[in-house]
Amino acid sequence: MLMDLPDELEQSDSGMESLTTSKDDTPERRPENNFITPSLGSSPSAATPPGFEVAPLKEYDDEPDETLSERLWGLTEMFPQCVRNGTYTVSTKTWMGVKSLYGLSRSVMWVVASSSVILFAPVIFEVERAQMAEMEKSQQKQVLLGTNTALSGPMPNMPPMPR
Asked: Which H/E stretch holds residue 147?
């Protein structure tokens, strides 16, 4: 149930001719046993029917399913060129922004990490050295006065030890 359209309409066909046919007339339910398929070497927008040949009805179960990217690519034809260009621009600019933000965050993290090591490492080493000196003093007190006096600190009755 194909309609005969003038050559101008066949070349600029947008798929809207299906609105003039029955709602139940889908490719799977066509009453004909044959349908038109393009032959090798012809373009889909060719206006001449001699480039087509009649083939028997195919079973759709044999054909591989479309991938998501193929379906999305097929849907791009229904949008105007300005929408497609705008979408492309937004997506590429977003991707470039994400990449530059990632690079910037890597640089900032490197500067923060290296600066903190350079600035705080001497402080950490000095605190560790002071703790070690305190532990040595404690060990000396323990050796000289016994275990209980080193842990409890100076006794209140005794004067502090001279150094």
From this structure: helix 147-152
